[in-house]
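Take a specimen:
=====
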Amino acid sequence: MCHVESYEKFISSVEKELRKPLPGISAQYKMAPDGRIERVAMARINSEQQISAVLILIFPEHEIPLPLISVYNSTYFEHDFYFKLTRGHLLIQLGFDVYYNTPYNAMAYMPSTGQFYIQDQKELGNYPYIVAFLNFKLKRTRFFFMFDHVNSGFTGNNYFSVLHYPLNQRTFKFGLSWTFYD
């Protein structure tokens, strides 16, 4: 059980209100390295999940809009190549990430005030956001290739994180990360 002591919210007419403490329950479920709950590994295929469920125990006019269930999953093939000639290791990861949440009335944003406010015009969510990736790690350097929002446009163009602000379209990203020692 968690309580929010005091919060401000903008209603659709943009009047500021102070509300009383907000009682609610939030639970997170995360799969663990030993397979109990955080990371599941089968041979060279790994899967990591995080599921959050929220239950607000108050009247609808006082609630902060949150999805009932929010899911994150990362599944990838991982292999460490060993080269006898150079005695080097090359770690490769090939996989995908999926983000999903149940439909809910997400907050809207008003640029003129720089504030989010509660809206009831449109439900957002109920849309999977998929990212495909390929990572290489050689000694202290990591190279990555990422295909962001793979499913963009497949089911129409109705994917928003905030009302009237769509998620990014399909994008290809690449780069490298080099770890330096002090």
Observations:
- Residues 9-30, 33-37 have pLDDT under 50 and may be disordered.
- Residues 2-178 form one domain.
